[in-house]
């Protein structure tokens, strides 16, 4: 394969991006589209728990929630996936058998990515052997900052190889640590050319996590890659998306940047834990006309 | 040269800040056929935002020490004292005599101090150790109900409003208040007092607007724990009671009009917005087996 010079990634017009976001967020969404968007958002959520305090029981509860979002409202979709640490993968796979909900796992020394290649490979292997459908890896931000783009490229390619054909790889850029929008674009290009199936904004451990401007830049990178290669790459904003209004704005941005083909959970995900409840709250409000209390939805 | 009259458009008070109504609508305050100010005509969305703010503030407010809540209520009274002149002027503008206005502001301050004093005392009054016989203590104590939606008195612009708010927040609740429609001036100024007197944002939220327009959401919103209606309109009361059933909202009815009477100072008004929590606490068997202490 021809060596690509990633320092030639397109530069980003920050003012232009912010202006575009300002116009998107000022849009009002009408009732029917809102309802459709809310159901769609629900179906795109990667229900996530990535804490030191995670227990078997919490993972079980989360898995249960993924396919029993709100039993009082029949006909709701399930979430797209449940995202856990590698050591919980087996348990989650077991719990979700036959539900259609996928199991995603973070690997490669999440969330810092500071470890040796062997450890990162082993970490990935644990997740893959456990039966994960998707692996979320973090890139080495340190290496990226010191300009060793080939190192980052090779690492992603190595992990993709370890994942094999059937396990989809999501590459986390951790945009909060990457800094400028120019760098975000560059990192997106590296990840896609190295074999990522998804690019993802953040681990959720660093603030700022996902933001609209950063996501827009990544969506544009995906679009350009698609024009060049014909390959559709998925997008996953993660962290900090906790209300429906924001989620709908993301969907709107995807529709306008990439088109309707990307509006399925094959190509778009939200990495979130509290979003589901707010979306449910809004769906119930749309159906009943009455505002709800959070008390009616499961906390986990 | 004569100046063009500039009518102030007063804003509403949600979560400690002063946004304009989301709907962009307003209505004129008319006293003696003369427009004195423009008020926001709050929408259902404003109410929803206010409930979210109140809910977020509820935990923090009810977990403050009673003594601290007491200090904060006292502080409201202090700030109100400092802005006495403005309130007297506004009350006069709304059509009452200067003497009466001064009396009303003074009493409002006194009433805040009255309820401030009760903050760390009502629990003792309404708590009890229940007479059970067995290897446990059993005691009941009041706890705040939660978020209270308030239709403030229509006839009293300041004193009625202060009385209701004080009795609700003294007990650790947060509230969303719809001020009197045609006497809303003091309510907005009182919001400015609250904003500068250590009351955490969201504990009190004040909207202005039309009762009938907001009635359904006030009574039906499931994240509101209690509703207070000051007035006599039988249709409204029936509707509130009907809608409140859905999430077992506590409905409290109080009078409109004259708040100068002493009967508006009572710890039972705090107790209206309290739930009784009963706790069983195991101890060793005392009664039958002889005391082991």
Folded structure, characterized:
The longest helix of chain A is centred in the last third of the chain and has 18 residues, at 212-229. Chain A contains 12 helices and 8 strands. The termini of chain A are far apart. Chain A has 300 residues and is of the alpha/beta class. Chain B has 293 residues and is α/β, with parallel strands linked by helices. Chain B has helices at 44-63, 66-82, 84-93, 98-118, 122-126, 159-169, 185-195, 211-220, 234-244, 267-271; strands at 9-10, 26-31, 34-40, 128-129, 136-144, 147-151, 174-178, 204-207, 226-230, 250-254, 274-282.
**Unreliable stretches of chain B:** none
Shape of chain A: globular
Range of strand content of chain B: 15-25%
Average residue-wise pLDDT of chain B: 93
CATH architecture of chain B: 3-Layer(aba) Sandwich
Largest interface, chains and sizes: A-B, 7 and 10 residues
Can you summarize the main beta sheet of chain A? 8 strands, parallel
Task: Supply the number of helical segments of chain B.
Answer: 10
Domain count of chain B: 1
CATH homologous superfamily heading of chain B: Aldehyde Dehydrogenase, Chain A, domain 1
Spatial order of strands in the largest sheet of chain A: 7-6-5-4-3-2-1-8
How many domains would you count in the coordinates of chain A? 1
Question: How would you summarize the topology of this molecule?
Answer:
The complex is a heterodimer of chains A (300) and B (293).
Chain A: H1 14-25, H2 31-43, E1 45-48, H3 56-67, E2 81-84, H4 89-95, E3 102-107, H5 117-130, E4 134-138, H6 141-145, H7 149-163, E5 168-172, H8 175-178, H9 181-193, E6 198-200, H10 212-229, E7 234-236, H11 244-257, E8 270-272, H12 275-288
Parallel strand pairs in A: 1-2, 1-8, 2-3, 3-4, 4-5, 5-6, 6-7
Helix pairs in contact in A: 1-10, 2-11, 2-12, 5-7, 9-10, 10-11
Chain B: E1 9-10, E2 26-31, E3 34-40, H1 44-63, H2 66-82, H3 84-93, H4 98-118, H5 122-126, E4 128-129, E5 136-144, E6 147-151, H6 159-169, E7 174-178, H7 185-195, E8 204-207, H8 211-220, E9 226-230, H9 234-244, E10 250-254, H10 267-271, E11 274-282
Parallel strand pairs in B: 1-3, 6-7, 6-9, 7-8, 9-10
Antiparallel strand pairs in B: 2-3, 4-5, 5-11
